[in-house]
């Protein structure tokens, strides 16, 4: 099942962690999504940061971001 992940809250950090996309806010993990299930990531708020390894992994899997 492919998922579109919508990040609409300010100040989130997105990174890769053991086959998951991890979402953090203020240093706390608030969500994890299996990378195999992500078809696209939509990020439309201020202060979002991404790790380079997450972007590379999503691109390798064909996800839009």
Computed CA radius of gyration, to the nearest angstrom: 11 Å
Please outline the major beta sheet.
4 strands, mixed
What order do the strands of the largest sheet run in, or round the barrel if closed?
4-3-2-6
Strand pairing plus helix content: what structural class? mainly beta
Which residue ranges are poorly predicted, with pLDDT under 50 across at least 5 consecutive positions? Answer: none
- Shape, principal axes of CA atoms: globular
Measured as a percent range, the helix fraction is: 10-25%
Count all strands and give the number: 6
Summed over residues and divided by their number, the pLDDT gives a mean of 93
Count of separate DSSP helical elements: 1
Portion of residues in beta strands equals over 45%
How far is the N terminus from the C terminus? 18 Å
SSE pattern, N- to C-terminal = EEEEEEH
Describe what you observe in this structure:
This protein is mainly beta and 65 residues long. Helix content is 14%, strand content 49%. It has 1 helix and 6 strands; from the N terminus they run ββββββα. It has one helix spanning 52-60; strands spanning 3-7, 12-17, 20-25, 28-34, 38-43, 49-50. Strands 4-3-2-6 form a 4-stranded mixed β-sheet. The mean pLDDT is 93.
Name the descriptors.
single chain; 65 residues; mainly beta; four-stranded mixed β-sheet; two-stranded parallel ribbon; 6 strands; 49% strand; globular
Topology:
Elements: E1 3-7, E2 12-17, E3 20-25, E4 28-34, E5 38-43, E6 49-50, H1 52-60
Parallel strand pairs: 1-5, 2-6
Antiparallel strand pairs: 2-3, 3-4
């Amino acid at each position: 099942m492919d998922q579109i992940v919508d990040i609409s809250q300010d100040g989130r950090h997105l990174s890769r962690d053991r086959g998951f996309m991890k979402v953090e806010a203020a240093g706390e993990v608030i969500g994890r999504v299996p990378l195999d299930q992500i078809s696209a990531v939509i990020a439309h708020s201020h202060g979002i940061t991404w790790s380079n390894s997450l972007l590379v992994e999503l691109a390798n899997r064909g996800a839009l971001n």
